[in-house]
Fold:
Amino acid sequence: MRGPQSQDRYFATFLTFSVIMWAAMGDWTKSEPAPVRRTESDFDDLDEPRDDGARGPRQRACLMCGRSFESEGAHNRICRRCKASQTYRSS
Structure:
């Protein structure tokens, strides 16, 4: 049976936990994030196409078998051998 003593104990536990959490978090709600300062040079490379080779033909690992194969581009992630398999065709 719950009596006034157990309610007091519950409230004391809740209050203690709340104070600990408040102390751990600090006063983060009133602080503002530091402004990010950008210059025009940060955006100069956005007009130029990327030339890192990520999308072009290159050696890639097949997503089914893991073997390396000559990919035609970023769209080609399954090797010819796996594409010819029954497992690939049935999915």
User: Anything to note?
Assistant: Strands lie at 58-61, 68-71. Residues 36 and 42 are 12 Å apart (CA to CA). DSSP finds three helices and two strands in the chain. The radius of gyration is 30 Å.
